[in-house]
Write a structure and sequence with these properties.
About 35% of the residues lie in helices and about 20% in strands. The chain is of the alpha+beta class.
């Protein structure tokens, strides 16, 4: 047997997320700061469906409204005022604080259900709770822009052109999780405008990615609680003294790559690693053989006030051919951590460094196209997108039996959702989402 299409997929999804994650309360909690022509609940549900079904634009949603499809899944639509413009304009005033609070529902529920593991759970990395932050660029345009766009100068054959982009720092859960866990997005924080050069860094008079990241971390600790994560893992951008001191002041640890050869941190790790004996690790599960050169108490060389360890790691990926190891890939990289050795040994740090995924190209969630170019609308669109992302994967990994049996692609499941939306014949109960 193989995976088969079902027209009940979207109704089943709505019934599940309402039962487990009280989705109807999320919808009813939506508010606007103004007096929109269409209710905030209808605006939210319309955009949510647009994101979930990967429709690509609000105009496609409006076309489905005229065909009578969307009326089956939203509480009510005023035929005289409901259109792509009223939904887009409504996003300009929708309350993004409420959206962020409702985005937290899925991660909190999964934590209560121990999907992320605990110190005793064998599915974690060293029993530690790990999150990652990463900056991402979205909604790039050569002509359309708003007050919160950033101007990026791009060198082309025709000369230097200005592109307008939005940038955001996103926090999400990573680690060696249970098979039914979801790498949920916890939240995002927009980076405020700056005039950036494509290869030349940032203008000093405007904030950078780390400033937005600091705001985001404080917000996430306030929203989820101080014990929601122990370790933050990042790319090389954050391996600097100010950020390390900031995290230490919050009682959090950092694991980060180190790439800039012109920094004291890189040079100290590179030189000192040649004076120590490597630790040999053979990860047979991942088929990676590693030699880890660990430098303890690196803060003494850096004049940092936070205990820091440095690492140079040589990794060789191999396969087994005729009973022998055959190396197929070799990589050497530097990293650092402020995690004490009693919490994370060298092998644990090595695994944490790899515990990331990129959010920019995650299963075609349309972060390239801006549905409505306005500062509040852009932020609201992304928060609703993150909500759809979390609920979609929670449904697939934790509830969808046919996924566990047949392992269809995410693209196939998304097509199943769309087919269900296009061909479902009955209006769903707004209160119970029972599919009747």
């Amino acid at each position: 047997m193989s995976y088969k299409l079902t027209l009940k997929r979207l109704p089943n999804f709505l019934r599940y997320v309402n039962k487990v994650y009280r989705f109807s309360q999320t919808i009813n909690s939506m508010q606007s700061k103004g007096d929109p022509e269409t209710s905030s609940q209808t605006i939210f549900m319309s955009v949510f469906l647009c994101m979930l079904l990967r429709l690509g634009s609000l105009r496609q949603l409006a076309a489905d409204s005229k065909a009578g499809r969307i009326r089956k899944f939203v509480p009510r639509i005023d035929k005289e005022t409901y259109c792509a413009n009223t939904v887009a304009n409504g996003l300009e005033n929708i309350d993004t604080d409420i959206l962020q609070q409702e985005l937290a529902v899925v991660p909190k529920k999964l934590r209560r259900n121990k999907a992320y593991g605990s110190a005793e759970h064998p599915g974690t990395i060293g029993g530690l709770r790990i999150v990652a932050i990463d900056g991402t660029e979205h909604f790039r345009s050569e002509c359309v822009h708003c007050p919160e766009c950033m101007a990026v100068h791009v060198t082309t054959k025709e000369g230097v052109k200005v592109h307008y982009v939005h940038r955001m720092v996103i926090m999400y859960v990573v680690g060696r999780l249970h098979s039914s866990a979801v790498q949920v997005i916890l939240g995002g924080e927009p980076a405020l405008p700056k005039d950036a050069l494509e290869e030349g860094g940032e203008s000093p008079e405007h904030e950078g990615e780390s400033t937005a990241a600091k705001r985001l971390i404080v917000k996430m600790i306030t929203l989820y609680g101080n014990r929601f994560f122990d370790i933050l893992t990042t790319d090389a951008y954050y391996s600097n003294k100010p950020f390390v001191l900031f995290l230490d002041s919050l009682g959090k640890y950092l694991v980060s790559r180190v790439k800039r050869e012109d920094t004291t941190l890189y040079q100290e790790i590179d030189v000192l690693s040649q004076m120590v004996e490597p630790i040999h690790i053979d990860d047979r599960e991942e088929r990676v053989e590693s030699w880890v050169y660990e430098i303890p108490e690196l803060q003494a060389s850096l004049d940092w006030d936070v205990p820091t360890r440095g690492f140079r790691i040589l990794e060789k990926t191999y396969k087994i051919a005729s009973g022998e190891k055959v190396y197929i890939k070799e990589e050497t990289f530097l990293c650092m951590t402020t995690v004490p050795v009693e919490l994370a040994d060298a092998n644990t740090v090595r695994q944490i460094v790899h515990a990331k995924w990129g959010v920019e190209n995650k299963d075609n969630w349309y972060m390239e196209h801006n549905f409505h170019h306005h500062p509040n609308a852009t932020y609201a669109l992304l928060l609703i997108l993150f909500m759809a992302h979390n609920l979609f994967y929670a449904y697939v990994f934790r509830h969808m039996k046919s996924y566990r049996l047949y392992h269809p692609t995410m693209k196939r499941i998304a097509e199943d959702f769309l087919a269900s939306f296009l061909h479902w014949k009955w209006r769903m109960s707004w209160l119970h989402f029972d599919g009747t």
